[in-house]
């Protein structure tokens, strides 16, 4: 009988929400390796009526958590959540000695890995960090209050110090863990959010040759900085590039201000705002693009960059973000800009329009290759 690779994640796609498709791809890649039986657990609030479900061949099982509103006092009711976890594992007929690895996504979920390791000392515990705010200090309406930040920080540090392996979606993400002096890292590993290249790949014949089309996918939040792209396009339009077309996908707090800027500056003929679309339909969207641009300046990695790249579409990003680790140093002046530098962004877009040079990456983005190497590393840690 295979040992169990237990994944505990607040993010996993369903028919109602497509959040967390990269974790789904990770699960499928682990299963393909054939070393483990993968079990996915997803926490839900105790009052939620959500039921266990299957998403594209993967069973997802819920257990209850008892979190206070607005991320206040995390961990206060862990004893109840752990009891719910134990009941779920019993209902699935999982003997704890069958579990080889507990892979928790985000720091707070690490508490369940720690509990299980205390029961079975041979279990290897993993926390995967998906953002630069590795302790979730900015979450909730109390994030500016010192008492709240101290509670969250101490709670997160305690979890991190009991974890065998810290995984970051980029080396930059792991730097944010290392910069917290109270955290003692036993082992760490940068696992880029790879792409399932059977889903994202070039499709010939759907690109409109009459236009140079730029795409951007992200929530409309200040940190995503879509306005920098809009201003860059405005510069190019004013220079006479009338064949430009830009499509944004996303929603959020800055969407209306971006729409207002487009309207006020006469850019409606060049820029389109689209509603969010199903993740599985993104392949055709990417393949209609000539270039993908996301000027986000607080980005741990960004799956959209590599999904576009897998479809044969180069991307431009901001320096100092996780995705920059994939750009060879000799090519950074082609593909990376400083935060908010719409003038240089416009220049880079123009240069690419005129030269169409090939974008190269310094690391593989194939999810199966990345997971194969990752599982070898897990076997090597104590």
Overview of this protein structure:
With 382 residues, this protein is of the alpha/beta class. The protein folds into 2 domains: 3-194 and 367-380, Glycogen Phosphorylase B (Rossmann fold); 212-355, Rossmann fold. It contains 12 helices and 14 strands. The strands form 2 sheets. Strands 3-4-2-1-5-6-7-8 form an 8-stranded mixed sheet. A 6-stranded parallel sheet has the order 11-10-9-12-13-14, sandwiched between helices. Helix 1 crosses helix 12 and helix 6 crosses helix 11. It is globular, with a radius of gyration of 22 Å. It starts with a strand and ends with a helix. The relative contact order is 0.11. The mean pLDDT is 96. Residues 207-361 form the Glycosyl transferase family domain. The chain crosses the membrane at residues 61-82, 94-115. GO terms for molecular function: hexosyltransferase activity. Pfam families: Glycos_transf_1. InterPro entries: Glyco_trans_1, Glycosyltransferase_grp1.
Give short descriptive properties of this protein.
globular; 2 domains; Rossmann fold; 12 helices; 8-stranded mixed beta sheet; 382 residues; alpha/beta; Glycosyltransferase involved in cell wall bisynthesis
Rg is 22 Å
> CATH class of the largest domain, please?
Alpha Beta
- What's the overall geometry? globular
The class by helix and strand makeup works out as alpha/beta
């Amino acid at each position: 009988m295979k040992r169990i690779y237990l994944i505990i994640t607040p993010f996993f796609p369903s028919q109602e929400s497509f959040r967390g498709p990269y974790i789904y791809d990770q699960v499928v890649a682990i299963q393909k390796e054939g070393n483990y039986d993968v079990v996915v657990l997803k926490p839900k609030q105790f009052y939620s009526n959500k039921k266990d479900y299957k998403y594209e061949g993967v069973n997802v099982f819920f257990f209850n958590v008892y979190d206070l509103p607005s991320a206040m006092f995390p961990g206060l009711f862990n004893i109840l959540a752990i009891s719910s976890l134990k009941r779920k594992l019993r209902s699935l007929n999982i003997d704890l000695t069958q579990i080889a690895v507990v892979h928790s996504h985000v720091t707070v979920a690490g508490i369940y890995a720690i509990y299980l390791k205390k029961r079975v000392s041979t279990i290897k515990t993993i926390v995967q960090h998906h953002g630069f705010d590795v302790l979730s200090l900015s979450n909730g309406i109390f994030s500016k209050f010192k008492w709240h930040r101290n509670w969250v920080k101490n709670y997160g540090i305690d979890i991190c110090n009991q974890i065998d392996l810290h995984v970051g979606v980029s080396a930059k993400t792991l730097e944010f863990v290392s910069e917290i002096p109270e955290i003692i890292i036993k082992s760490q590993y940068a696992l880029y959010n790879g792409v399932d290249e059977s889903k994202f790949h070039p499709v010939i014949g759907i690109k409109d040759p009459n236009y140079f089309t730029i795409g951007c996918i992200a929530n409309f939040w200040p940190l995503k900085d879509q306005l920098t792209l809009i201003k860059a396009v405005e510069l190019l339009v004013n220079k006479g590039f009338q064949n430009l077309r830009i499509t944004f996908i996303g929603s959020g707090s800055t969407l209306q201000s971006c729409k207002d800027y487009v309207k006020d500056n006469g850019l409606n003929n060049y820029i389109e705002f689209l509603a969010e679309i199903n993740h599985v339909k993104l392949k055709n969207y990417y393949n209609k693009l000539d270039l993908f641009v996301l000027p986000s300046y607080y980005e741990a990695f960004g799956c959209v960059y590599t999904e576009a790249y897998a479809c044969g579409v180069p991307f431009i990003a901001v320096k100092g973000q996780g995705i920059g680790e994939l750009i060879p140093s000799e090519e950074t002046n082609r593909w990376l800009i400083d935060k908010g530098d719409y003038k240089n962004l416009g220049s880079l877009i123009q240069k690419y329009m005129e030269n169409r040079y090939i974008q190269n990456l310094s690391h593989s983005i194939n999810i199966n290759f990345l997971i194969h190497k990752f599982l070898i590393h897990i076997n090597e840690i104590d």
